[in-house]
Structures are given as structure tokens and as C-alpha cells.
Specification:
This protein has 487 residues and is mainly beta. The protein contains five helices and 30 strands. Helices cover 7% and strands 32% of the residues.
Length: 487
């Protein structure tokens, strides 16, 4: 071989004939007839909201475009959220205690779902807010077998024995394996003196109420707090259940994340899915190979587009001048060969390839981020009959900082609380983080597009509609970021 010729990257699927969804972009009137109010500066974790506030005291405190139950829902606050509000109510239509204008927009009714009392028990118990700058906005645990009981208050030792029939043998084994990966703090004030945790849905619990149920074996929980109670670790979940942590597995967030393209970096790009791959250098004169160090499992890199064949193997050049071996389970994300109709200057959109198991975020024709994903486990099957990801051109219309996903198929039951960074783009299909598996790059889901937590956090902040600070969910029927899913 006498040269290392440039080559054309693998062609992308033709998309020139596809056009932007015909739904018009949402106008200001679709969201809120009034201009946004100035939001408080929350750039510092120590920042305090100045002025009057409103607190959410149920799981979903809805925010409306106008001070009326008949106006459109904009989004919602999660129990414990505290947001800035106008000093005086904007009206009382169907709301005895008044509708209050919120920052930056919308109205909430004070009453059963919201309060002006900053010392309310729910606000105290759920004071720990989701951190949207993290891959996982809460600390998470997965149930072991048997799954933990969902206590409604701190159980006495006798009550634990009555509910957990195997308690003695379980504790003997559990205490030889101390809880790691989570910091235990003080007992939540709302649980002191034998009181049940405050309810955020349905009727209040009596002091005699002990536990609600046992979850299905494959269950995941987000924690507001973790603490020691009589020598045993417990956690308070976002649903206000008290669970023994020694019956769970503390989850460590995935370290995997994709590539943010900067400068000259871009497509083509590659992810190396071998755990034993190496980088190489090729002498430009002798074409001799030399080792340049290891490649991390699933490491991503931008490629120059040049290939070389040496000793029967094909090598791909990274932009840093090193080379990787194509047969080391390398997933190549090619340049765009045809420009879709919606890829106008600066417009954000998402490309998901089911066969490659990749996602690329674009601004116009410029790629800004690429990563591995897990789409439906049944590949290119019929999404109506199998666990396959739907194909087509859609728009993000609803976003949740975290939302519950469950399934009751016999033999495949699951109950995953607070799945992070959920972005619905059509029917029940969404982009979201997965905290229960690490198989990004392999089909795994029931049809959604699973992302590593750090990727999901980045994408959630990047797409439209934007979820205002302090809110937990936002709805925008039209005009959200385009999601194009294809083979």
C-alpha cells in the first residue's frame, strides 16, 4: 500500500423527500396570552426565591394559560416545588383561594393542589428538588427479591417483623453488606413522632396506617432522602413511601456519554463497542503500525473520513491522527448525504437510526451531538404488534423531568418510578434516560428511545419546548423539536 486515500463516508438514508410536519409552529397565543414574567436567578444552588411564592402539595399541580380550569394546561409542578408568584390573585373563578400568576408564565389555583404556606408538611418533606444538571436528577434504587414493602411511616421493629416474614434472616445477611453509594442524612421531620408521611394523592393516611403494598419485583424508585432508623437504612421516595434500602440495589449512574462536537469535529464519527480495542499510528512512509494506547469501551470520536487497509484489516482515522480497527465492533455514524426539508439554518432536530442504534442532534445541517441509544428490542418490526420503535417524522410535544413507566405483560411486569428526562414525540413513544440498564448501542426497550442519563440530561435541556426552572413538566401541542426515526 503506497497511500492512505480519503474515502467517502457511508451514505446516510435518503431523506430529501421528507418534509417538516405540516402542523404550524406554536404561537405565543397558544401558550399564554400574556408576556413572560422575569424568572428568578437560580444559577446558584444557594439562591433563594425573593418575593411571594407558591408551593405544590400534590404530585401534579397543574398550571394553566389563564386563571380558569377551562383554559389549556401549560405544564405542572411536582409536590415540593416552590415558585415565584404575583402578590395578588388574578381571579377566583372556581377557585376560592385564588388563581395566582406564576413566574415565568401561567396560573395555578391555591387550594387542594397548591399552597401559599411555606411551612406546609409536603413542602418540608419534599424539599429536595430534582437536579436537572445531573444525569440522574435523584438518587435511585432498584428492588431486590423479594421487593421492599412500601411503608407509610417509620415502622417499629415489631411492625417490621409482622410485615416482613423473613426479617431475621434477611437482616443477618444484609448487615454483612453495608449500604454503599448513598449518603444517609437526618430523619425527615415529617416522619418524626410516629406521623405518616404526608400524602400527595388521595386521602390522608391515619397514624394507624402502616404500609400500602409491595411493588412488583422489577421496580425502581427515586429518593428524596435516605436515613438511618433504629440501625436500619431507609429512604423516603418521591411518592412519599418509606422503603428499607437493604431490600434494594443502590444504582450507580452510567458513566457513558456521547460526543459533543466542537470546532472542526463532526461527522463521520465512531463508537468503539469492543472492550479490548486499541488505537494505532500508521507511519506515512513505511505504513508500519504502532500501538497508541487503549480505546475505552463505547468511546466516541470524530473521524477524518480516511480509511487504510493493512494486513487484511481496515483502519479508520480519527481526527487526532490515530487509527482504529474497523472490526473492533465499530459503529460509524456517517455524514448526512441528503438534507431534509426541515434542516434550515440553526433549526434543531434529532436523527435516530434504529439499525445503527445511534442518535445525532443537529442545528440545521451541523451536527452538535452524537451518541448510542437503545431502541425497541424487536428492531424494525411492526410497532403495533411488537416492541419496535415507531418510524417517521414527529415533534416533541410533552416533557417531564421524571415520570413513571410501568407494564403488566405477564412475565414482564415492571414499575419504574421517576424515569428521567422523558420527551414524548408521538403516542406512547418517548426519548428518555434509562437507569435500569447499561446496554446503550443495543436494542433493549419496549419501543421508546433509551439514552444514557448524561445524554438524556443534555438533550432535555437542548430541545423544545423548554421546561421552566422549578416546573416538572411542560406541554406544547405544536412546534417542538423534530424527531426523525428511521432504519
Amino acid at each position: 500500500m503506497t497511500a492512505l486515500p480519503p474515502v467517502t463516508a457511508e451514505a446516510a438514508e435518503p431523506v430529501a423527500s421528507l418534509q417538516e410536519p405540516q402542523e404550524p409552529l406554536a404561537s405565543a397565543d397558544d401558550n399564554d396570552p400574556e408576556p413572560d414574567l422575569k424568572a428568578p436567578d437560580t444559577s446558584s444552588k444557594a439562591s433563594v426565591i425573593e418575593g411571594p411564592t407558591l408551593g405544590a402539595i400534590v404530585k401534579e399541580t397543574w398550571i394553566f394559560t389563564k386563571p380558569s380550569w377551562h383554559s389549556r394546561k401549560l405544564g405542572y409542578l411536582r409536590a415540593g416545588a416552590v415558585v415565584q408568584r404575583a402578590e395578588k390573585p388574578a381571579g377566583y373563578a372556581g377557585c376560592d383561594k385564588g388563581w395566582y400568576r406564576l413566574v415565568p408564565r401561567g396560573y395555578a389555583c391555591v387550594g387542594n393542589s397548591a399552597t401559599l404556606d411555606a411551612s406546609h408538611a409536603v413542602l418540608d418533606a419534599a424539599a429536595h428538588r430534582p437536579d436537572r444538571s445531573r444525569g440522574l436528577p435523584y438518587d435511585y434504587v432498584m428492588s431486590r427479591n423479594p421487593p421492599p414493602p412500601l411503608y407509610l411511616r417509620l415502622p417499629s421493629e415489631q411492625e417490621q417483623k409482622a410485615v416482613e416474614s423473613d426479617l431475621a434472616s434477611h437482616l443477618k445477611q444484609a448487615r454483612s453488606k453495608p449500604i454503599e453509594g448513598i449518603e444517609l442524612g437526618p430523619i425527615p421531620g415529617a416522619l418524626l413522632y410516629g406521623d405518616p408521611a404526608p400524602t400527595i394523592s388521595g386521602a390522608k393516611h391515619s397514624r394507624e396506617s402502616l404500609y400500602s403494598s409491595r411493588p412488583v419485583p422489577r421496580s425502581g424508585f427515586a429518593l428524596l432522602q435516605a436515613f438511618d432508623w433504629n440501625g436500619r437504612p431507609f429512604g423516603l421516595t418521591t411518592d412519599m413511601n418509606v422503603i428499607p434500602l437493604d431490600r434494594t440495589r443502590i444504582l450507580k449512574p452510567s458513566a457513558f456519554k456521547g460526543i459533543a462536537f466542537e470546532g472542526e469535529d463532526g461527522l463521520p464519527a465512531a463508537f468503539v463497542r469492543s472492550k479490548y480495542a486499541r488505537r494505532y499510528r500508521i507511519d506515512p512512509t513505511t505504513h508500519a503500525l504502532s500501538d497508541a494506547g487503549p480505546v475505552s469501551y463505547r468511546e466516541g470520536m470524530s473521524l477524518s473520513g480516511r480509511k487504510a487497509r493493512l494486513g487484511g484489516d481496515v483502519y479508520l482515522e480519527a481526527r487526532d491522527g490515530t487509527w482504529i480497527r474497523e472490526k473492533d465492533n465499530v459503529v460509524v455514524v456517517p455524514r448526512m448525504s441528503n438534507v431534509p426539508g426541515w434542516a434550515t439554518a440553526g433549526k434543531r432536530w434529532i436523527d435516530v437510526s434504529i439499525l445503527r442504534q445511534t442518535l445525532v442532534a443537529f442545528e440545521g445541517t451541523r451536527p452538535v451531538y452524537a451518541t448510542l441509544v437503545s431502541t425497541g428490542v424487536d428492531g424494525l418490526g411492526d410497532p403495533e404488534k411488537t416492541h419496535s420503535t415507531v418510524q417517521g417524522v414527529f415533534q416533541v410535544h410533552t416533557k417531564h423531568v421524571a415520570a413513571t413507566m410501568d407494564g403488566d405483560d405477564v412475565g414482564d411486569e415492571f414499575d419504574l418510578r421517576d424515569v428521567p428526562y422523558v420527551q414524548y414525540f408521538t403516542e406512547g413513544y418517548a426519548l428518555h434516560a434509562a437507569y435500569w440498564h447499561e446496554e446503550f448501542g443495543t436494542p433493549r426497550s419496549h419501543g421508546c428511545v433509551n439514552l444514557a442519563p448524561q445524554d438524556a440530561s443534555w438533550l432535555f435541556a437542548w430541545t423544545d419546548p423548554q421546561v421552566p426552572e422549578g416546573w416538572h413538566g411542560y406541554l406544547q401541542p405544536r412546534g417542538g423539536t423534530i424527531v426523525y426515526t428511521h432504519p
